Amino acid sequence: MTTAQDEDLLAGFEATLARHERIEPRDWMPERYRRTLVRQIAQHAHSEIIGMQPEGNWITRAPSLRRKAILLAKVQDEAGHGLYLYSACETLGTSRRELTEMLISGKQKYSSIFNYPTLSYADVGTIGWLVDGAAICNQVPLCRTSYGPYGRSMIRICKEESFHQRQGFELLATMMRGSDEQRAMVQESVDRFWWPALMMFGPPDAESPNTAQSMAWGIKRDTNDELRQKFVDMSVPQARALGVTLPDPDLVWNQERGHHDFAQPDWEEFAAVVAGGGPCNAQRVAHRREAHENGAWVREAAAAFAARQFPVAEEPAPASASKPPQEQEQERES
Ligand code: FAQ
After folding, report:
1. Which ligand 1 atom is the nearest neighbour of the CA of 209?
2. What count of other Cβ atoms lies within 10 Å of the Cβ of residue 113?
3. Where are the alpha helices (DSSP H) in the chain?
4. Whose CA is nearest to atom 11 of ligand 1?
5. Which atom of ligand 1 is found nearest the CA of 200?
6. 178-234: per-residue pLDDT in tens?
């Protein structure tokens, strides 16, 4: 391909972004744009799948049939989110099998938050309130991300995450109306999850290697620090309504800025957790690997079934198969 052609393609790609239109799977895109999307969408998908584990831990011990049914449904929703996101990633040419391999071999990341343990049942409510709350803050702007399949998958995911956030808040509000022991459980849980929830937005902008380019490409719509601020501002009145204290003595309303001032989480702890040294990293990945290995027979059976239903024809492929996708589509339509 000539350099002039490359320049035309790049100009077309940039013009699409400038018009705030979507890039779609068959459109030309720079290789770095594709790689960045695969990295971010895969990390997001893995987070949804690994994120089933901390709450799944409480399904058998939920205190009532109603709470068990709610929790089961929520954890199942997270599996669905993972699947939409893996599908979005597949449109970029990376298969789900490859993505799973990269997760269980530790080559791809997932959100740091899921490397913390769920020590009490109140953690189910706190995860709904704070973790799904942070996820919504981060993900609502992603509905407008520049890559079509990612943005469209985020729309349904955000609707479900909003519902999850409300169920977490409702659970905590119910416990706060209960006994002193229940109120103490909620406070202890919020104390443990507040700082890791702030870390979910990623490192401070000044230390984020990807934000500037991802903003320029319209993959990210807000920076890590902007979203963290939005989350803090949103959480303070909710904490007040619940009657819990956020564990940050520096948290105050700043009239001049029109935002809350707050302390930074421990970024050394964040780096250690992302590097694999969090309290549950090894357990989370080992559990996922085991589930994947135990599911091998299902994948083999599904492949054997598919081969029986749709035997691969020995006959030569139709001539149109070698034509570009647009022409194949026109032939099908005519
Ligand atoms: N954990 O340059 P940046 C959920 C990595 S879903 C681990 O700022 P970027 C639903 C980052 O990958 C939660 N690693 O990176 C749920 C990069 O590493 P690399 C997941 C992190 O991509 C609820 C390096 O640090 N949500 O919760 C983290 O521009 C309840 C430098 O960082 C998403 O994934 C972290 N927290 O911005 C499920 C949303 N932060 O790859 C179950 C989509 C950063 O260069 C129960 N993702 N890193 O080696 C995003 O918006 C972005 O990817 C950010 C990071 C904002 C997370």
Report:
1. 2
2. 23
3. 3-18, 31-50, 52-56, 65-90, 96-104, 122-126, 132-139, 148-176, 180-199, 211-216, 224-242, 267-272, 281-294, 296-309, 325-333
4. 202
5. 36
6. 999 999 999 999 999 999 999 999 999 999 999 999 999 999 999 999 999 999 999
CB 312 within 8 A of CB 303: no
pLDDT at residue 318, rounded to an integer: 52
Which residue owns the Cα nearest ligand 1 atom 5?
Answer: 202
Q: Whose CA is nearest to atom 48 of ligand 1?
A: 202
Report the pocket of ligand 1 as residue ranges, CB < 6 Å: 39-40, 43-44, 47-48, 51, 78, 109, 111-112, 127, 131-132, 135, 138, 199-203, 208-211, 214, 220, 224, 274
CA distance 81 to 84: 5
Q: Rounded to the nearest whole angstrom, what is the distance from the C-alpha of residue 200 to the centroid of ligand 1?
A: 7
Q: Which amino acid is at 199?
A: M
- Nearest CA, atom 40, ligand 1: 202
The torsion angles phi and psi of 333, rounded to 5 degrees, stand at -75, -30
The 10s digit of each residue's pLDDT in 220-244 is 999 999 999 999 999 999 999 999 9
Q: What is the pLDDT of residue 252?
A: 98
Q: How confident is the model at residue 5 (pLDDT cuts 50, 70, 90)?
A: confident
Q: Specify whether the CB–CB gap between 62 and 121 falls below 8 A.
A: yes
Give the three-state DSSP class for 23: strand
Which residues, at least 6 apart from 157, have a Cβ–Cβ distance to it below 8 Å? 81, 84, 85, 139
CA-proximal residue: ligand 1, atom 26 (nearest): 44
**Token digits for 173?**
């509000």
